[in-house]
Each structure stands twice: as C-alpha cells, then as structure tokens.
Amino acid sequence: MKKYFKKITGELKEIIILAAEVSREANMPAYLVGGFLRDLILGVKNFDIDIAVEGSGIIFAQRLAKKLKSELRVHERFGTATLILDGLLKVDIATTRKEKYPCCACLPVVSCGLLEDDLMRRDFTINAMAVSIVRGDEQKLIDPFGGRDDLSAGRIRILHDLSFKDDPTRILRAIRFEQRFNFKIEPKTLFLLEDAVKNGLLDKVSPHRIRDELVLMLKEHDPLKQVKRLNNLCALSFISKKLKAGKSTYDLFKSIDKEILWFTKNFPAHRQLDTWLIYFTALLAPLAPGEIKKTTSRLGLRKGEEKRIISYCQSSRRLIQFLSKKGVLPSRIFFMLEPLSYETIILLKSASQNKYLKRYITDFLEIYNGMRLYVSGNDLHGLGVLPGPRYQKIFAKVLEAKLNGKVRTLQGELGLIRELIKITD
Ligand code: CTP
User: Fold this and answer.
1) Residue 77: closest CA among 118, 115, 110
2) What is the pTM of this model?
3) What phi and psi, each to the nearest 5 degrees, are found at residue 132?
4) For residue range 255-277, what is the model confidence (pLDDT) as tens digits?
5) Please, what are the domains in the chain?
6) In principle, which of 121, 139, 326, 355 could form an S-S bond with 99, CB 3.0–4.6 Å?
C-alpha cells in the first residue's frame, strides 16, 4: 500500500498526516476506507476522503477539525461527521459500526462495531477494504473479501447473498460502478441482482432513495451507458409504471451529450448546468403530462427541478414547431426563450435537428440574451414619464425594436421612447 500513499500529495496528504496525529493522540485506530481507498488503488482522483474510526468518529472529527481549522457538520444519530474544507475537498468521518436490516429495504439498525464489522456491512468487495492511516501501518491492506483482486479483475461483487435484499439501492449502485469503471458484475452477483429485480425489490425502496441513486447515475460521465444497462437489467417501471426507454431516448441522450459540450465550451461564464436534470427530463419526456407530475412529486424533486421538467414537457412541441420555421423575428425568439432555464433550452436544441432552430438558439445565447438597453429609468424620468408599470412596457418595446435591429444607438432608443410616449399620452 505504501506506493499508493506516495501518490497522495498536497492538501490531501496534509489532512491524512494530521488525521494520523489525531489517531495516535486520541488512541483511536483510524482507517482510510470506502470509495477513497478504492480510487486511490485505481489511481482515480477522489476528493472525498472516507475515514472510519474505532472509538468515536465524532470526537475524532472534532479534533481533526481543530487542527485543520475547518467547519464541522456532526450527525449525532449516525456517529458521523463531515469536515468542510475550502475548494473541492471533503472528509467524511464515521465510527466503525455494525448494521442489521430488520426487513427488506428498511433502514438498518446501527450499533458500534469493530473495523471488520464495518467492512462487512458494505456493498461491494471493492468498497470493503481499509488501510490504517498511521505511518508504518500503512503498508497493510485490510481486505477480508478479496476487493483488491476484484479491482484488478474489474469485478463488482457483493459480500453475501442477502445484500440486495437488505438494501436494494445496491442494485443501482452495482450498475453505476460497473459502468463507471468499465467493470463487469460477476455472475453470481448478477444472478442475485436479477432475482432481486424479478422479485420487485426496487419497488420497496423509498422514492427519495431511488431519486438520489438516479441522480448519481445521471451525474456519471456517460449517462447513456448507465441508462442502457439500467434499462436492460431492471427496466424502468420502478421509476414510473409506464416508463420505457428505447432508441429515441438513447438518440436524445447522445444529442444532449453534444449540446452540453457545446454549451460549456462556448459559454464558460454562464452558471453550471444541472446536466443530470437535462437527462432526467429526456427520460421522462415520453410520459403523459399527468404521469410526469405524479413521478416528480413522488420522487420528491425540488420545486425548481420539477418546474424545469414540466416546463419542457409542456412546451417543447409548440416551441420546436415555432422555432423550426425560417425568418422568425429575433424579438419573438427572445421572448420565447428568455423565460426558460438553460437546461430547457439545451434540451430543445438537442431534441430537434432543424437548422433554423439550432441557429435561433445559438443567436439567443450569443447575442439576444446579453443585449442591454442604453436607456435607463432616469432617461424615462427625464422625458417626463412617472415611475410605474408603464416603464416595463416601454422598455419591452424598445428592447423588441433593438433585437430586431430597428434601433441601435442611445439616440435611436430615446427617439423611439418619445414616439411611444406620444402614442400612449
Ligand atoms: N455504502 C454501502 N451501501 C450503500 C451506500 C454506501 O455499503 N448503499 C458504503 C460503501 O462502502 C461506500 C461507502 O459506504 O464505499 C461510501 O458511500 P458513498 O459515498 O455513497 O460511495 P463511494 O464508494 O464513495 O462512491 P462515489 O465514488 O460514487 O462517491
């Protein structure tokens, strides 16, 4: 393991050195575990450090937070804490624990345990390894289930036959890790996974947990790959009874990949897209509007997310039809697209191959959306217009003229305003 430790540099290394200090001072054995260790062995960047502590994860975290002068979020109930550091880094610290599942898909009953218990409660062999963070001990990989061999062979393997029954979200996690790393779910695990699906175990999971796993899948670097495998192994009825995906959804996903790339390359200053939401909307789009609404509220999506999904599903047909025509006035394009989120706009651009629509959306993002008037409220006031709703109406008219190239300068805008005042007075 020593050679892997050597690969840890910079701030990550400092954190681990300080954590080793805390482990010694508090006399609490501490280990790197979970995804961080897996990725360290794989040579994949991971900024979420997972530490398991025999003793008290919370006391350990408090001491480490003091040394790092970092913010600390404690979750008493679970014996866990998270250190929030500047930038991308996050440290999750947990007391080693045992878990028992009282029934299928229930949340587990948790009690204190040793490291072995903590590894035993985990999902896959590749996530069930540990290494001590104390210097000198760090050569020794604790690997009771053969996770290291599975990592080398590219295998996803559960630890025991009841794993999917205990926690059916592992069905989705198995697919996610398999597709992320280009691994293969090994035959017995695959058999048990398919059996769990056949027995409807995904329907027993709380919708919020399903949502969280779906979001994680759609945040992976190749959501199409994830969804294809998900569809092949589980179908999609656990998301919504009538939901199906086929060639048209897959083609749309491919088109979305391209448009997201285009957007991020060309508009780096815009806010980051919620890319998962674009894919999720594409997935739900074939459903009837009532079904979409039912699904989003059952999954407990946030209001803003729900709104963006519904806005696309309700208006995409009409907008695509309208924007596919030649010679649409810039002001019409602007007033149609301006109320929509970037996610909805990118989805529109992905859903149609019409060259006019693609051009209009590009123009909207490149030109119209950033267009500002020269005139201000002061100018209107100077022309004798009293503040009130009339301001907005006048500004909208001037913007319309400017978008359509009818006025180009401050003088032009002022001239138009004078005319408008005369007409409405
Ligand atoms: N875990 C588990 N069963 C779950 C969720 C998590 O056993 N249903 C365990 C796994 O050992 C996992 C660890 O908790 O490695 C941390 O969970 P999480 O942060 O969700 O997973 P990571 O492995 O860190 O995955 P990612 O790289 O996607 O963050």
Assistant:
1) 110
2) 0.91
3) -65, 145
4) 999 999 999 999 988 888 999 99
5) 1-153 (3.30.460.10), 157-233 (1.10.110.30), 236-359 (1.20.58.1960), 377-424 (no CATH)
6) 121
